[in-house]
Every structure is written in C-alpha cells, then in structure tokens.
TrEMBL record:
Residues 285-382 form the Histidine kinase/HSP90-like ATPase domain. It comes from Plantactinospora solaniradicis. The chain crosses the membrane at residues 12-35, 41-59, 68-86, 98-113, 120-138, 144-169, 401-419, 431-453, 465-482, 510-529, 535-561. This is Sensor histidine kinase. Keywords: Kinase, Membrane, Transferase, Transmembrane, Transmembrane helix, Two-component regulatory system. Pfam families: HATPase_c.
Length: 752
C-alpha cells in the first residue's frame, strides 16, 4: 500500500467519524427539540446516549479499534432502531422517528471506510431489519402506513446511500492506488537519475580527494620535498588511507562545519589564523565538500605559496538560512589564475567543480607576489525542488471523485427519482415540466462525464450550467402542488442538489456550500410561499439533513482530498528521499569498494609503509615508486571524454608533472588516430608514464597514428631499474636499452 492510499484511508476514517458525529447530533437534537415524543424522558436519554456512544466510538476508532467495536456499534444502532417507540409521537405517526432512520443511514454511510464489503452487507441488512421492526413496534396498527409517504424515501435512501458510499469509497481508493503507481514510477525514474548523478559526483569527489591527499603526499615524496617532515608525513599517510578507504557521504543530517574545518587546520603544517563563529550547523554533504575544498586550498599553500602562514575565515551571509562562505587566504607568491592549464586538477576541479556539485561556487583571486584568496560559497539550505507529485495525486483524486459523483447522480436520478416521477403522474400540475427537469439533470450529468472522459473540465460553462440547474429545479418544484411538496412526489427537492455538487466539486468550500445552500433555500422558499407541505417542519429537517449531509460530505471529501494531495506528496517525497538515500549509499559503497580494490596493490602499500615508517621517504627506490604512483593518479585525474583528444590531454598532464620535477620533455604527435577506449588509453600510457616519472634530464615523447594503429614511444636516460609491462587489452609494449638510453614503445591496433 502506497503513501497516498494510506493517507486516504487515514483521512477518510477521520472524515467519516466527524460526519457521523455532526449529522447524528443535528438530526437527533432537532427532533428532540422540535417534535413531541411519546416518552419524553426515555427519548431524551436515548438521544444523549446515542451521541455519547458516537463520541466514544470515534475516539476508540481513531486510537485503533478492537475487533468487537464494530459489532458492538451495529448492535447499538439496531437497539436504537428497535426502541424508536420512545421518540414516536403520541398519535402513532412516524415523522418524529425519521431522525432514527437518518442517524442509522449516516452511520451506515461511514462503514465502507471501516469494514469490508461482506461485513457492510451484513450490517446493512441488520440495521434495515431493525429499523422496519422498530417502526412496527412504534405503530403496531399502522406500521405499514408508517412505511408510506414520509418514511419510504428515507428507508430507500438508507440502502441507496450505503451502496453509493461504497462505490464512492472504491472509486476514490482506486484513484489513490493509481496515484501511488504514478508516483512510484516517477520515483523510480528520479531514483535512477539520482543514483547516476550521485555516482558521477562521488567519482569526481573521490578523484578530488585522491588529488588532495594520496596524490599530493606521494608527489611530495617523489619530488624529495618530504625530507625533514617524517612525523608529519606518517600522520598524513595515515589520514590518506582513511580517505581512500572511507565511505561516501550522502547523509542529509546536520553537522558543525567549524568543527570539521578546525580538524582540517589541525593537520596542516602551517600557522593558521582562524576567523569566524564558534559553530555553523549545515548538511553533512555540504560541510564535507567545504572541508575538502579547504584542505586542498591549504595543501596548495604548502606546496606552492612559499609561506608557512595562512588564514581561514568562515561567515554566514544573508541570515541563518543564507550562504556559508569559507575563505583561505595567504600572502605567498601568488599566480595568475587565467594562465593555469586546463588539465591542472587542483584549482579547476578540486575546488571550483567541487563547489558547483553542491550548488555553490568558488573563486580564486590571486596575483604574483600578492598572495591568493580562495573563496568558497555554499547555500546553507538547498533550494526545494518543485514537487509534481501534488499535481499527480490531486488530478487522480479529482477524477476519481468526479466519476463517483457522476455515478451517484445518475443512480439517484434514474433508479430512485424516476420511479417517483412515474408513480406520481396524477399529482403533478405539469408532467412535462417534471420530465423536462429530469432530462435536463441527466443531460447535464452526461455533459460533465463527457468532458471528464476527454480530460477537459467545464471551465467557463460552470455558471451558465448552474443557472440552468436552478431554473430546472424551480420549474420542477412549481409543477408540484403545495400539499405534495417535500413529499414522495417532490423528487427534485434535494436530489437536484447532486447536479450542483457535480458542477462545484473543484471550487472553494465557501462557494460550494453557499451555492448548495442557496438551492435548498430556493426550494424551501417555494414551499413556504405555496402553503402546507406534505410533511411537518421537524420531519422535513430530518429528511433534508440526511440528503444534504451526504452532499456536503462529498464536498468535504473534495476538500480533504485536495489537502491530502499536498500531505501525501510530502510523505511520498520524504519516503522517496529515504529509499533513494539508501539506494545511493549502497551503490556508492559498492563503487568505493571497487575503487579501493584498484588501489590495494599499488597506492595502499606505499601509504601504509610511509604511515608505519617501514618505507624511508628519502630512499631512491621509494621516491621512484611514489613518483610513478603519483603520475598514474595524475593521468587518472586528467581523464575527460569531453576533450577533443583524451590521449593527448592525459599525456600533457603527465608531461606537466615531469616538467615540474625538472625534466625537459620534447613532445611531438603525428598522423590520425582512431577512437581509443579508456582502458586501452590507460594501458598505452602506462609505460610512458613510468618513464616520465622516473626520468632525469631530457625525455622525448612521441605519439604516432597510422593505419588505425596508435604508437606512444618514449626515449629517456637509462634508469637503475626497469619495470616490466606485460601485454594487455591489445596493447603491446617493448623496452629497448641502447647504452645509456632507454626506448619504450607501446602500440595498439584499432581494429584488432
């Protein structure tokens, strides 16, 4: 059962219980005050006890009813029906006991929201039997007459209302299920999109984290700048291991950004001046991104700024729900941001792209010899996305309720009112007027049904059609003689209101109730002006209450459903967020495990050895291994399928790294190259990357494309040790030593 259907059943039960309380109280107290009871004291006690039981029943039902509560309720209703002799009038008439039938009917109307179809049928038969039996007890000499003009419509209406209420319940619940299916379909699409987006973002964040931690550490060791920092290096390597093995952050809970930033600062080999508030609570995902960006900015100060001091400033702009701003400021050597190559990872991707992924922004303000300011901004409260679930649920509810009202109107007109019309020909002043009104109401109902079938509303025709309803109702009432008005022959008295309901279901509550009430007032005014009616005022009140209550109840259902659409959409989105978060977390955890497994044979042993002190960062072999691994990571960071030539883009990133280590690289490329898969590019660049990372002095790098074949070759000085590069993924690698020169060549045939 989906959230929409659960919400419907919960709200429907509350609505049903409130409808029962109000209608029974109105009908019973009106009859007690306006009528004359045969046994006034027992009748008053009956009214009080019935209403007290209704309150008790509603409270227990809302708290979770025991199994015996509904059978007990049916028993109470049957007892009231059987004891209607007490409120019966002294002259033996039945009009004063119509409230009993009205109360029994409205109670039965609420049962479809509480019991199953079989139990509803059994309860209906039991209550109807008790009501007829009670009428016989109240008037044993004329109980058949008691089933005549005044009470036959009420008792027929009791059965009709139960059936119509059951149909209304089934149609609206079917609409809720349809809305749940549509919401679930949308959720699946959004969840798949969220997982795909989260995987892309997490991959970028993981690469950014590798760049900020493991790659930077290994690069420092490979470049020989870690000398004298063995203690800090061991701690840093330990933290790097935690980063690459740690879980992805998808939590929406709040954490303290300031605490996280202070932890970053604590592990930085700089004198850092702090400026900002004591605490800044915000979403964990955003706080982690800001702290990672701060870590990278401070790492860049250590590596490039040629200063041992920096400042970290935190502020919140625009109030508590505004924008969080983190600035990392140094007064070091500075640089020209526009001159940073696109393949450089730190500024463009580790900071700027990181902020963009969480809806923020980052700017770098720097000039030579004037220092650098890295400014990161992130909205503290992410903007809420438009929720189309509300429209989906509301539309489905509206369609279901409209179809139910169309069915109710047609059933009442054709199965209940038409027999009255046919049986009362001799009563009417004009039979043609009655058929005109009946046909008009049926046609109006079919017009609404046709528009509903075609997916169109009545729009600007609403008020002309309502005016037509009032005219037809007035014509039908005028054709009934005054002494028969509000009686059996006056079929249009309240039932014409169902066409009003059908035309006003999607309007505001005050408009709905005002127009419906105006229709009843018009009918009563015609009756009062005409003279004596078929039934007394007290009986007319009770007869009107039972019909009007159901009509107002349908209108209230429309209001409840509109409110329920909003609350159900909110619940559905909350549940969706939980399920999506769990699915994203599971997928990202699997991705992280796979990425960690890729590093387990290369990066992890190096970091573990540096963290434990088993590896000497000053040893030539350790430096060489760290340089090679750092170069592999740099090539990985440079992977970008959107650039025109990914192979050259990745190689240039490795060349830039080698040049920063003092190597002079001569690079050339020739010919046309086929499209190269990512895994093949990794194999093609593996040996040249190793050569660039271990080279000293001069290197010549060449890329040649011819006849669907790609060849990458490197000529460099002969290193003390040469790695082996087995063939893989169709890439053949050879290494040739000629004196003090090493020639490495990797080739791949595109159509192989």
């Amino acid at each position: 059962m989906g959230s929409v259907e659960r919400g419907l059943l919960r709200q429907g039960l509350r609505y049903a219980l409130w409808l029962r309380l109000v209608v029974v109280a109105t009908a019973s107290f009106a009859a007690l005050l306006l009528g004359t009871a045969r046994e006034p004291v027992p009748a008053a006690v009956m009214v009080l006890l019935v209403n007290a039981w209704n309150v008790y029943y509603a409270v227990r039902r809302l708290r979770g009813a025991p199994r015996w509560l509904v059978p007990a309720d049916v028993t109470v209703v049957c007892a009231v029906c059987l004891l209607q002799v007490w409120p019966a009038p002294p002259d033996g008439g039945s009009e004063s006991t119509i409230w009993v039938s009205a109360a029994a009917a409205i109670i039965m109307v609420t049962y479809p929201w509480q019991v199953g179809t079989r139990a509803l049928a059994i309860a209906t038969v039991a209550v109807m039997t008790a009501d007829i039996g009670g009428a016989a007890i109240a008037n044993p000499d004329g109980w058949l007459a008691g089933l005549g003009l005044a009470s036959i419509p009420i008792r027929l209406w009791m059965v009709a209302e139960v059936a119509l209420s059951w149909g209304l319940y089934r149609l609206v619940r079917r609409s809720a299920r349809a809305a749940d299916r549509l919401v679930a379909r949308g959720e699946r699409l959004r969840r798949d999109a969220a997982i795909a987006a989260a995987r892309r973002d997490d991959e970028r964040e993981y690469l950014a984290a590798l760049h900020d931690t493991s790659s930077a550490t290994l690069l420092m060791v490979g470049a020989g700048v870690a000398a004298g920092r063995e203690r800090w290096l061991a701690d840093q390597a330990s933290r790097d291991l935690e980063v690459i093995s740690g879980p992805a952050v998808v939590s929406q809970r709040e954490v303290d950004l300031v605490g996280m930033l202070r932890e970053v600062v604590r592990h930085t080999p700089l004198r850092v001046r702090w400026r900002g508030p004591a605490a800044v609570p915000m979403r964990a995902v955003d706080a982690v991104m800001l702290s990672h960006g701060t870590r990278e900015a401070l790492t860049n100060v250590v590596r490039h700024a040629e200063t041992d001091a920096a400042e970290v400033a935190v502020s919140v702009v625009g109030g508590p729900a505004g924008t969080v701003v983190v600035e990392v400021i140094d007064s070091g050597r500075g640089f020209v941001p526009d001159q940073v190559p696109d393949h450089r990872y730190g500024v463009a991707r580790s900071v700027v792209e990181r902020m963009a992924r969480i809806g923020g922004r980052a700017t770098i303000d720097s000039s030579p010899d004037l220092g650098t300011t890295v400014r990161m901004e992130c909205p503290r409260t992410p903007p809420e996305s438009d929720d189309d679930n509300v429209e989906i649920i509301a539309t489905r509810f509206q369609r279901g309720l409209l179809w139910a009202t169309v069915a109710i109107n047609l059933v009442i007109l054709l199965l209940l009112d038409l027999p009255k019309l046919l049986a009362s020909h001799e009563v009417y002043r004009s039979v043609a007027a009655q058929y005109l009104a009946m046909g008009g109401f049926v046609v109006l109902t079919l017009v609404v049904a046709t528009g509903l079938w075609r997916g169109r509303g009545i729009g600007r025709w609403r008020w002309p059609l309502l005016a037509l309803v009032f005219v037809l109702s007035a014509v039908a009432t005028a054709a009934v003689p005054p002494e028969h008005r509000l009686g059996y022959a006056h079929w249009s008295e309240g039932n014409a209101g169902w066409t009003v309901v059908l035309l006003l279901l999607d309007t505001r509550p005050l408009i709905f109730m005002g127009v419906l009430g105006a229709h009843y007032l018009m009918t009563f005014a015609q009756t009062v002006i005409g003279g004596d009616a078929a039934i007394s005022f007290a009986a007319s009140v009770n007869a009107t209450v039972i019909v009007l209550a159901f009509q107002l109840g349908v209108g209230m259902i429309a209001i409840v459903l509109r409110q329920l659409a909003v609350s159900s959409a909110r619940v559905a989105r909350a549940e969706e967020e939980v399920r999506t978060t769990e699915a994203v977390a599971a997928q990202l955890a699997q991705d992280r495990r796979e990425r960690y497994a890729e590093l387990a044979e290369t990066t992890v042993p190096l970091l573990s050895g540096l963290a434990s002190g088993e590896l000497d960062p000053g040893a030539e072999s350790v430096r060489r291994s760290c340089a090679v691994e750092a170069a592999k990571m740099r090539r990985l960071f440079a992977e970008d399928a959107t650039v025109p030539d990914p192979l050259l883009h990745e190689l240039r990133a490795c060349i830039e790294l080698a040049e920063r280590n003092g190597v002079s690289v001569a690079f050339a490329e020739f010919g046309e190259r086929p499209t190269i898969p990512t895994q093949v590019r990794r194999r093609l660049t593996e040996a040249p990357l190793w050569a660039l990372a271990t080279a000293r002095g001069k290197v010549r790098l060449t890329v040649v494309g011819a006849d669907e074949t790609v060849t990458v070759s490197v000529v460099t000085g002969r290193p003390p040790e040469i790695d082996s590069f087995p063939d893989s993924d169709g890439v053949h690698t050879s290494a040739t030593v000629d004196g003090n020169r090493l020639w490495i060549q990797s080739s791949w045939q595109g159509n192989s």
